[in-house]
Write a structure and sequence with these properties.
- The complex is a heterodimer of chains A (about 260) and B (about 325).
- By secondary structure, chain A is an alpha/beta fold.
- Chain A is built from eleven helices and ten strands.
- In chain B, the strands form two sheets. An eight-stranded mixed beta sheet of chain B has the order 6-7-8-3-9-10-12-11, with helices on both faces. Chain B has a four-stranded antiparallel beta sheet with strand order 2-1-4-5, with helices on one face.
- In chain B, β4 and β5 form a beta hairpin.
- Classes of the chains: A alpha/beta (about 260), B alpha/beta (about 325).
Chain lengths: ~260, ~325
């Protein structure tokens, strides 16, 4: 379904991702882990065709459903984004306009991609919000982003991203700004959505536990390169790259070593 | 060593903080918090956003005054100190902040940042800044040449080291670390916590380590306090956290962690709903509307801290058979 072949991404001729490849099938979950600056976010932005100013895929190819995304006319890409492919951000509150209500933006989003009356779009949006276990969808629709908690905003973001049942969902640190109990709720809901729609997901996270829980394939990145890839068993229990080993050792564990001396 | 032999460096007694909102409602940020910090030890404070941990440390660093209750530092009530008296106590209580990128003036050189507290207290003269800055940077394992750099030329981990150097410049007795590793990558986090532990051992500093990551707090602290909606629900030796009897909320926090050694086939046990607003705290136990063990009594009576065993206290009606903590 998605085939990324040896891409190199450069910002102003400075390579930030080198020789990145990823092949994933339908209904697969892949996670990208690694430290900040390792190029995780750049990879998913390149797939979406949303690299910031000065960023460019200089080598390699990206195929989505057999179509080359890099040669695709802009018009087709725009139609595809938000419909066949959608994205969840670290703080979905930052992606929505603070000066208009959730409802008006959700309705506008739906009507951009599908011919539909406002009333119908409203109902569809409210239905999505309810499916994300947001209590009182009507109230959320009439709220401004700042009136919602971080967890609620993230649910709104996921509800929007899932509206058209995309084939591919790109999630950039979707739970990093949240408290642990809220993180758990969001991850569980993403997994429920995944089971229902068989959406393929690429999740960028620095939390190896979240990556291991969700994914079929884990890619560990460092300095723009993939240093190790494999399934949960391989990465957690038989890591080969020294960076992966260091990463695993650095995570404090609930029943692990206590650093402080008694 | 039992708790009675240890010297109490800082003590919070029934500390309550109420903020008034613009609409005249009152927000109960801390509700009769009782906590002791013993000399040479690390007290960890864990809890989710809005639990009152930041309010609490603002009061123990004397940035805010409690609405009622008192804060004793070396036995002296410091909660309402003003002017020079306050300044003299503050020098013994220093703090490292969460985001080292925002904590420093972008126009100051590193040497001026780390030496500013010393100059403020006239402990060194201008001519000594270069040497002292080098010494402080070397203490936190940074090259002395960094003294002439600006904070923007450094990585997050390096900046956090500068934050530690500045906080330790006055050789404080109590170092408060507020989410000091939250903005850092996990490998860098480990290096910073290693540094803090090394410095604590060398200098015998007392620490308060505040963090939302309960597994990190556990690893860093001799005792951990779990906060929820302005209340202390449990105080437990780090080593025992989550192992034995624990507060239902502590259990819930523990089970919502995604850890690399969790059982991936078990269904997730996760708290439903969100914490109530501190403007609208439930009667009785603050945790009752999310607790799976809730009983009738939880709605009417607020549980008090009870001692389960030396050093381990829980405020929960499930443990009503144990003796109340004596003040």
């Amino acid at each position: 379904m998605l085939n990324v072949k040896n891409i190199t991404v450069e910002y102003d001729e400075r390579p930030v991702v080198e020789d990145f490849s990823l092949e994933m099938g339908e209904g697969e979950i892949v996670s990208l882990v690694g430290e900040s600056g390792s190029g995780k976010t750049t990879v998913i932005r390149a797939i979406l065709g949303l690299l910031p100013e000065g960023g460019e895929v200089t080598r390699g190819e990206i195929f989505f459903d057999g179509k080359s995304l890099l040669d695709c006319p802009k018009k087709d890409l725009i139609a595809m984004r938000g419909r066949d492919m959608s994205m969840i951000f670290q703080d979905c509150g930052a992606m929505i306009d603070p000066t208009s209500t959730i409802g008006s933006q959700f309705i506008e989003y739906i009507r951009t991609h599908e011919k539909m009356g406002k009333r119908e779009a409203y109902d569809r949006a409210a239905k999505m919000l309810t499916a994300m276990r947001l209590p009182d969808a009507d109230n959320v629709m009439h709220s401004y982003p700042f009136q919602l908690s971080g967890g609620m905003r993230q649910r709104v973001g996921i509800a929007m991203a899932m509206t058209f049942e995309p084939k591919l969902l790109l999630a950039d640190e979707p739970t990093s700004a949240l408290d642990v109990t809220t993180q758990g709720q969001i991850i569980r809901q993403m997994m429920d959505m995944y089971k229902e729609h068989k959406t393929s997901i690429i999740i960028v996270t620095h939390n190896l536990g979240v990556a291991a829980y969700m994914s079929d394939q884990i890619l560990v990145m460092k300095g723009g390169k993939v240093v190790e890839r494999g399934d949960r068993e391989k990465i957690l229990h038989h890591p080969e790259d020294p960076y992966t080993v260091n990463l695993l050792d650095s995570i404090p564990k609930m029943d692990g070593e206590v650093y402080v001396e008694y | 060593m039992s708790n009675t032999d240890k010297e109490v460096l800082l003590e919070a007694r029934d500390v309550t903080k109420i903020f008034r909102t613009t609409k005249g409602r009152s927000l109960l940020a801390n509700d009769k918090v009782n906590l002791k910090i013993y000399r040479g030890e690390t007290l960890g404070i864990a809890g989710e956003s809005g639990c009152g941990k930041s309010t609490f440390i603002r009061m123990i660093t004397m940035l805010d005054e409690p609405t009622s209750g008192e804060i004793l530092f070396r036995g002296q009530n410091v909660s309402h100190l003003r002017g020079e008296a306050r300044r003299q106590v503050c020098r013994h209580v220093q703090m490292v902040f969460q985001d080292p990128a925002e904590a420093f003036s972008p126009r100051m050189k590193i040497k001026d940042i780390v030496c500013e507290p010393l100059l403020n207290f006239r402990l060194i003269s201008r001519s000594q800044v270069n040497d002292k800055a080098r010494e402080l940077l070397e203490m936190v394992e940074l090259p002395g040449e960094f003294a002439d750099r600006y904070a923007r030329d450094m990585s997050g981990g390096q900046r956090q080291r500068v934050g530690i150097a500045r906080a330790l410049a006055l050789e404080p007795e109590l170092l408060i670390c507020d989410e000091v590793t939250s903005a850092l990558d996990v490998c860098v986090q480990k290096r910073i916590t290693d540094l803090l532990l090394k410095l604590q051992k060398e200098k015998g500093i007392t620490m308060a380590f505040i963090c939302h990551d309960i597994s990190l707090v556990r690893a860093m602290s001799h005792r951990t306090a779990i906060m929820y909606l302005g209340n202390i629900l449990e105080v437990v030796p780090g080593k025992q956290l989550g192992l034995q009897m624990s507060h239902p909320y502590t259990k819930a926090l523990k089970s919502s962690l995604f850890s690399v050694d969790m059982d991936f086939n078990e269904p997730l046990e996760i708290l439903e709903s969100e914490a109530p607003s501190p403007l609208d705290i439930p009667t009785g136990c603050p945790f009752r509307n999310r607790c799976r063990y809730v009983q009738k009594i939880c709605a009417t009576e607020k549980p008090v801290l009870r001692t389960l065993e030396p050093g381990h206290q829980i405020a929960c009606h499930l443990f009503n058979g144990f003796p109340e903590v004596e003040e």
